[in-house]
Design goal:
The complex is a heterotrimer of chains A (253), B (235) and C (254). By secondary structure, chain A is α/β, with parallel strands linked by helices. Chain A has eight helices and ten strands. Chain A has a single domain, classed as P-loop containing nucleotide triphosphate hydrolases (Rossmann fold), CATH 3.40.50. The longest helix of chain A is centred in the last third of the chain and has 16 residues. Chain C is mostly helical and 254 residues long. Classes of the chains: A alpha/beta (253), B mainly alpha (235), C mainly alpha (254).
Amino acid sequence: METNEKAAALRIEGLTKIFHLGRNKNVVALDNLSLEIKEGEIFGLLGPNGSGKTTALKLVLGLLFPTSGQIEILGRDYQNIEVKNDIGYLPENPYYYRYLTGPEILTFYGRIFGMTKEIIKERKEKLLKLVGLYDQQHLSLKHFSKGMLERIGLAVAMLNDPKFLILDEPTTGLDPIGSRETRNLLLDMQAAGKTILLSSHYLSEIEKISNRVGILHQGKLLTLGTIPELMTQWKAEDIEDLFIKVIEWSKQS
Amino acid sequence: MTKRTYRNASVAALVLLFLLLSPLQDKIDLQRKQMGFEQRLLLMPGQIAGSLALGGFKGLAADLLWLQVEELFHSGQSHKMLPILRSVTFLQPKFITPWAVGGWHLSYNISVMAKDPNEKEAWIQAGVDFLKEGITYNPERYDLYFELGWTFYHKVKNYAEAVKYLELACKFPGPDYLPNVLAHAYEKNGQIDTAIETWREILRSGNSFGHLSPRHIHNLKTYGSTITPETPKKK
Amino acid sequence: MVKAIVIAKNTFQESLRLRSYQIILVFALLLLGSSQLFSFLTPAEQLKMIKDVSLSGIEFFGMLLAIFASMTALRSEFETNTISTLFSKPLKRSDFILGKFLGMAMVITLSIIMMSVVFIGLILLKQRSFEISLFSALFLIWAEMLVIVAITLAVAAFASTAFTLIFVLFLFLVGHLTGYGLSMAERMKNPVMHVVARFFYKIIPNFENFAIRDQVVVGGTVPISYLLKTFGYGIIYAAIALIICLYFFRYREV
C-alpha cells in the first residue's frame, strides 16, 4: 500500500445475497456488489425501497450471511467479532428496551462493549449532550418520539467511539433542524477521522455530506463516484435528476 | 468455525450428554422404586380427575375424589363410595386416610346394612383385606396397623390377630393410646402377665395414660381383668 | 460470561414488566389463597388439600410463567428489532442465549419464591410448623422449571410462538407419562417395541423425576441423594436444550 493512499475501511468483493423464500422462489437481494470505502470517507448508498441497501449493511455487520463474496472491515475479516468493537450501527427505525431511560440504554450497551464504569459515565454525559437528550435523562424510552429514538440511536452508535459508523436511514423521523444537527454531527465525526457509510433515500441529505455515492437498484450497484463526477457522467441537473436517469437506464438495459 | 464443524461439534456434545443422562435416569428409577414412588396410571374417561392424573397432578386428583367420598358419606350413600375410594388409594397409596376410612366403612357401616349374616361377614372381611392392602403401601407407619388391630379387637373379636397388629403399630411413632389398647388386647387374649407388663411400661415411660396403670395392674392381678366385678348391692 | 450476565439482567427486568407474566402470577397467588376455602374438611384433610393445591399450583403456574416469559424473551427481540443492534456489537450468540437462560432462571426463581412464601404462610397459619420435606418438593419444582425454560428457548429459536406454546405444553404432558408408556410397551410381545420405547424413554425429558410432592404431602421424606441426582438430570437436560437452541440460533439471520 502506498503511504499517501488511505487504507480501505470497507472492502466488498462480489457480494451476493439470495433469499430462498420457498419452493422455486428465490429473491436476489444483492447481486455481485463490489465497492471500497476509504478511511475517513463519508459514503452514501442510495436507492429506492427494496434496492438492497439494508441488506448490504446487514451483510457487512454479520446480521445476514452472504450467498457468496468477501467482506473486509478495517483490514480484518468481517466475521471476526473483535471488529465490532470498532463499528457503530444505527438501524432503520431504531427501537430499544422501552423501560430503560437514555442513560440506562447507554450503560447497557456500554457493558456489552466491555467498557468500564468510568468510561461509560464519561461518554454517557457527553453523548446525551451531543444528541440533545441530556434534559430528558429521566424519561424512559417508551415516552420517546420517533425523532428522540433516532437521536438516542445515534448516541448508541457512537458510544464505543467507533472508527467506522454504519447508519441506515439516519434522518428518518427528524425535522429539518434535527436533520441539520445530525449532518453537522456526522461532518464533525469525519473531521475526527471516522469513516461513515450511510444509506438513505433522502437524496438531498446524502448530497450535502457524502464524499462519494453509490446507487443501488434491484440489488445491483448501477453507478459509483463523487457527485460532481456522476452529474457530469449522467448529464444530470441535480441529484434527483441523476437518480431518475440512473434508474431509468437500469430499467431499459 | 465453519457451519459443518459447528454442527458436528453440537451433535457430538448432544450424544455425550444423552449418554450421561441414560445411566442417571436408571439410578433415579431405581431409587424411586426403593422409595416406593411407583407410577400408577388411572384412566377415568370424562372425569376431571382423569386428566389431572394424566397431567401429573395425582395428589390433586386424589383430593378431588376424596371430596366426593366425603359428600357421599354425609348424604348416606356409602355404598357408592367404594369405587371412588379405590381410585383415591390407587392414585395416592401413601394417603393414609382413605385406607383407614375405607376399612372402617366396609367393616362397620356397610356390614351393618347387610341383612344376611354371611354377607355381613364378607363385608367385615372386605374391610380387613382393604386395610391389609393399605399396610403393604404404608408398612412404616402405625396408622393402618392400629386400624386393623382395632377392627380385629372390636368388630371381629379375634384377639390373637388384634394383638399381632397392635404390636406392629406400637413399633412406630404414634399417639399415647397405642400401648393402652395393646394392653387391653393382651388381656382379652388371655395374656394377663404380658398385659400387666405393658401397663408397667406405660407408667415407666411417662405415657399420658400412666395414671391408669396402678389401678389396671391391681385389677389384673386380683381379678384377671381390668374391669372389676360388680359389688353386690347391700340389701 | 460477563456479557451474558448483562443480557440476563436486562431479560430479568424486561420479563417482570410483561403483562402476561404479571397476570399469571396474580392468578397463582389467588389460587394459593383459595385453598383456605376448604374449611368443611377436617384440619388434617384441609392441610393436605392446601399442600396439594399449592404445590400443584406452583408447578402449573410456574410452567406457564416459564413458557410465556421465555418465549417472549426471545421473540420480542426479533419483533422489536433490538436484536440487530445487539448483534452489531461484539456479543457472541452463545453469550446471548446463555444470558437469556440466566435471566429467565432469575425470573422463575423469583416467581417460585413469591409463591412459596404464600404457601409457607398458609401452612404456618394452619399448623405452626413447616416440614423440611416440602422444601424438597419446591426445590425440584424449581429445577423442573429450569428445564422448561431451556426447552422453550430451544423451540422458540426456530419456531413460531403458537408452535412453541403447543409443543412445550405437549412435551410437559408427555414428559410426565413416559414411565407409563415404557411399562405399557414392555408388556407388548414385539421386542422391537421395547427397544423403541426404551429409546424414547431416555430421550424425552422425564418430568416425573421431579414429582415427589404426592409422597411428601402425605408425610414422606426424600433423601438428599435423590434431590442431587434429579437436579443433575435437570441440569444435563437443560444443557442439551441450550445446545440445541444455540445450534439453531447461531446461524440464524437477524
